[in-house]
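Dear colleagues,

As part of the handover before I leave the project, I'm documenting each prediction I ran so the next person doesn't have to rerun anything. This entry is a single chain, and its sequence is reproduced below.
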Amino acid sequence: MQKSVEPLYSTVFDVFPTLGTTPTTSPTEAPSPPSPTPPSSAPEVVEGGADADASSTPPAPTGAPAVPRRHRPKSMRQQLRSHLLDGYDRLAHPRLDPDANVTVGVGLAVIHVDLDERASTINVDAWMRLAWKDEHLPWNPQDYGGLKTLHFGMHELWYPDIQVWEKGAPYESFLMADCVGVVVCS
């Protein structure tokens, strides 16, 4: 069964209309030099200098239009991330009622256990998963093209004060939130 996917734009030319145009010079011809401009009394702006405009767009490759980053179309995933993280405080309590407890589910799947009686050590290879609900994160999937889950870095969302260590060093993992606000760390 194939699913049909509606494109955000019908062609790339809808986004960048000048991509489909024919250049005015052939590749073998040298472009004509720019016409001289009369001197002005305004100070010259040096690229990258203190007078450079911070919102200016870097020059586009030859033949491609210059599109400022703030005007580039965003994917549904990028739009959702922007919506959820706009004003989100990762240090704030994940419940709307600040006095409510946060229930954190903890799961542990043991993969391998190695017991060394002589050295009095035990090594456990396991996969630990934490899950909780962040009431600041729910969204309507229909508003974002049916998107029901989204990945985040550990530094982006509230995280319970539980630290997993692997061989004496903290273990880096990722967070995945779903549309009802359930966050899973694995």
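Residues 1-56 have pLDDT under 50 and may be disordered. The domain at 105-185 is CATH 2.70.170.10 (Acetylcholine Binding Protein; Chain: A,).

All the best with the project,
I.
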